[in-house]
Amino acid sequence: MDTRVLKYFLTVAQTNNITKAAEQLHITQPTLSRQIMDLEAELDIKLFNRENHRLQLTKAGILFQQRATTLLQLLDQTENDLHQQEEALTGEINLGSAVSSVSPYITKLIFEFQKLYPNVIFNLSDGDGDVLRRQLDEGLNDLVCLLEPVEAAKYNFLELPVREEWGVMMKKEAPLAKYSTITKEDLYKIPLILPHRSIVRDEVSDILKLDQTRLNIRATTSLPGNTVSLLRNSYYYSLTIKGVYDNFHDPDLVFVPLVPNKSTGNVLAWRKNTILSPAIKKFLQFVNEQIQES
């Protein structure tokens, strides 16, 4: 399948209009229409619903859009990797990280690394652990910062000297804001926002011996920005890591740690059985050296 046709398809999917897509691609409308119909014929499946001069992706079309985007990104990355040279290190590194205490640590490492290798470009993204692992598995990210534990059989990783403290974030006017610590009995009495990932909730519950059926859960979130917005506009309480609180620096919010204390480590992970570009190898070597010195 010609990558040019994939780009044609993605442009049509973005505009939902053959005429607009043809103008962006600088080709004629009949040519583009024929290319899309040939693509559907080749795949033997309908990618668009055609109604009232507009095109809407079918379920199959949405899946193909996701995979086509991934394919083109991987092709671009492969081309960049092939042009890298050891004597003048260049290239791109796709790195994902959650919004946490590891964020300022890893970005400082990137800054120091680029002092030595200014031609290496970092493409940074964020997300929760599930999103980051999926992006790593699909090749959309080369490296990701993850909270421990990680699947040792699936990933290589470096343990980073950054730990996350668990606690509760809330408005500073909230009744529990004056507490020095928060217990599981306190958690049973308050409206909670919890992490979306069940594995994280279960891990914290094991430490505190929590009965999750007794919790007053009002929302679950995977994006810290949504959590902060909810807290600003309510008297809810968020079970979260201190790194989220530190990253937002919101003077109207406070963070109170849990008791017994719960903390989690961070790792920099990459896929096993994959060929790393010279730029990625050099960055991992640099990170490891910084860890040993700290």
UniProtKB/TrEMBL annotation:
The keyword DNA-binding applies. Pfam families: HTH_1, LysR_substrate. Residues 1-58 form the HTH lysR-type domain. Keywords: DNA-binding, Transcription, Transcription regulation. InterPro entries: HTH-type_LysR_regulators (IPR050950), LysR_HTH_N (IPR000847), LysR_subst-bd (IPR005119), WH-like_DNA-bd_sf (IPR036388), WH_DNA-bd_sf (IPR036390). The keyword DNA-binding applies. PANTHER family: HTH-TYPE TRANSCRIPTIONAL REGULATOR YBHD (PTHR30419), NITROGEN ASSIMILATION TRANSCRIPTIONAL ACTIVATOR-RELATED (PTHR30419:SF8). Belongs to the LysR transcriptional regulatory family. This is LysR family transcriptional regulator.
